[in-house]
Amino acid sequence: MSCPPMKYGLILTELDNLAINNYWRKYSTYLEIGWDVESIKAYLAQKDKILQIASFNTNTVSFSASSRRNRFYDIYNRPDMLDKDVAEPGAVECLVKLADKYDIYIISSRTEDLKEKTLEILKKQGFPLEKIQVYFKETNAILHSYRKDCVLKVKQKNPSGVAVCINPEDASSYESLNYTPVGFTTLKNFDDFNGKISAVFQDWNQLLTSLLAA
C-alpha cells in the first residue's frame, strides 16, 4: 500500500496582524487609559505605528513615562480585552480551504499564559483549530530563539512549504530552510518587500488563489 503524498507546510509567521486583527483591543486599551477617540483613531490608522505603543499627554492623563509599556499591556492582555480580537477579513474561510492542501502552523508571539483564552477566541471566530498548530512563547523565552525552534519543529514534519511573512526581514531565514517566503501587507507597504520577497499579497483572497495554484 502506497503512502499518501506528504503535504507542504504553511507557516503563518505571526498570529496578530495576519490571522487576527487586534485593532479594537488596542482601541479599547487606549480608551481605558484616557486617550480621546479622535486621537486613537488617527494613531491606529498609521501602518508604521501598528507595533508601537503611543506616548501622549492629556489634561488628566500622562502616558509618556518609561513605564507606559507595562501599563499598556496590563490592560491590553486582560481576558476581557482579548475578547475584542477578530479574524482578519477572509482569514478563516481561506485557512479552511488551504488546510486540504497544507499542514498549517501559526507561530504566535503571544505567551503561554494567553494560550487558553487565545484558542478560545480563535475557535469562537471559526478558525479550524483541529487542522492548525498554534505555537505560544514561554514567558521568559527569547523571541528569536523561540521562532527558530518552532520552524525547526515544523520542518521535521514538513520539509518544505510556504511562509507568510509580514516583515520583509524574515524572508532569508525561511528561504534557508526550504520554505518559500511570501509577503503580506498588514504591517508594511508593497514597496517595502521589494528585493526581499517577490510575491506579495494585500489580502487573504489573493493569497488563497496563489497558494491553491502552486
Oligomer: single chain
Low-confidence stretches: none
Widest beta sheet: strand line-up: 7-6-1-8-9-10
CATH topology of the largest domain: Rossmann fold
Which class best fits the helix and strand makeup? alpha/beta
Strand content: 15-25%
Largest sheet: 6 strands, parallel
Global Rg: 18 Å
Provide structural commentary.
- The protein has 214 residues and is an alpha/beta fold.
- The protein folds into 2 domains: 8-21 and 88-213, Rossmann fold (3-Layer(aba) Sandwich), CATH 3.40.50.1000; 23-82.
- The chain is built from 9 helices and 10 strands.
- It has helices at 23-33, 37-44, 68-76, 79-82, 91-98, 115-125, 143-157, 171-175, 204-213; strands at residues 8-12, 20-21, 56-57, 62-63, 86-87, 102-111, 132-137, 161-165, 179-184, 200-201.
- It has a 6-stranded parallel beta sheet with strand order 7-6-1-8-9-10.
- α1 (23-33) packs antiparallel against α2 (37-44) and α5 packs parallel to α9.
- It starts with 7 loop residues before the first strand and ends with a helix.
